[in-house]
């Protein structure tokens, strides 16, 4: 349920309303909009007499939060959520450009790519140190050594760091090196992992599952938010369909749909979304035109020798050209890079 308090309600009266809802066994989350405290009361709402709640002196209105996701919904929090990561604000007018290799492979590789993407205009460096590989015999990542390299390379070029965490036990370790914790598509419904990142204070980049609906994706965001961490960035990375020409089908419909349903920032990963280098730039341009708050792009200076996802990695020069084009598109939309 959504309980909106009257403007000017004192903190004491707000705290009192919250306590009374908690006493009914409900989990209570608050936000503010247009000078009003808004309270989402979630759980078994049937035990409460909502007509009585509506009659409390501090209460302006009571309404049902109709969607299954509550904290992630725009009905609860009407304003766009803007997530600050160092000098980057994700979800505001400036687009977030995240770029880097699929996997961290070594010092020279990661420093070369960090320099290239920073010069091109990226503000966040990506790179996997723990890799979810379809085959157990494929390169699994450099682990903590990779995180150290990624952090050093990013710091050398003023970039924030995003990297994937695959296991609840590794969340604390990843949080030491990263500014943003990435939940990969394969783990979108790993609820133990979602809970664990929900207990941190790090922004979470939540990729859409390979075969997940938009509602399932937003419910996964809800799992993180219900633990107290409201800093979730959604990332559309393509879904599995009957089409085989591209690696996945990039669902750009999801961008305007999620923007309406949720206040969370949405970025797009056209690298995994297409799997084909020369299809990445057109879909990146389309994503920004569709209203995405940013991009995640795989870049490699020697993709033929990349240990993962070389075929979808842009050369640095291609990435530079793409960012220029994104700047032009952003301008039309009143945004910046
Ligand atoms: C990645 O970002 O390298 C990755 C493995 O992505 P996804 O989880 O979208 O497949
Ligand atoms: Mn990859």
Secondary-structure map with pairings?
Layout: E1 2-5, H1 11-23, E2 27-33, E3 36-42, H2 50-55, E4 59-63, E5 83-85, E6 88-90, E7 96-100, H3 107-120, E8 124-126, H4 144-156, E9 160-164, H5 171-177, E10 180-183, H6 191-198, E11 204-207, H7 214-226, E12 232-236, H8 254-261, E13 266-268, H9 270-274, H10 277-289, E14 294-298, H11 316-332
Parallel strand pairs: 7-8, 7-14, 8-9, 9-10, 10-11, 11-12, 12-13, 13-14
Antiparallel strand pairs: 1-3, 1-4, 2-3, 5-6
Helix pairs in contact: 3-4, 3-11, 6-7, 10-11
The structure holds phosphoenolpyruvate and manganese (II) ion (MN).
Describe the structure in brief.
The chain is α/β, with parallel strands linked by helices. The chain is built from 11 helices and 14 strands.
Strand content: 15-25%
Task: Just name the CATH architecture of the largest domain.
Answer: Alpha-Beta Barrel
What's the number of domains? Answer: 2
- List the strand order in the largest sheet: 7-8-9-10-11-12-13-14
Radius of gyration: 21 Å
The low-pLDDT segments are: none
Helical proportion, percent range? 25-40%
Say which CATH homologous superfamily of the largest domain is assigned.
Aldolase class I
Element order: H for helix, E for strand: EHEEHEEEEHEHEHEHEHEHEHHEH
The oligomeric state of the chains shown is single chain
* Number of helices, where a helix is a run of at least 4 consecutive DSSP H or I residues: 11
What is the overall pLDDT average?
97
CATH C-level class of the largest domain is Alpha Beta
The profile of the biggest β sheet is: 8 strands, parallel, barrel
- Distinct small molecules: phosphoenolpyruvate, manganese (II) ion
Secondary-structure-derived class? alpha/beta
Number of strands: 14
Can you tell me the overall shape?
A: elongated
Straight-line N-to-C gap: 38 Å
CATH topology type of the largest domain:
TIM Barrel
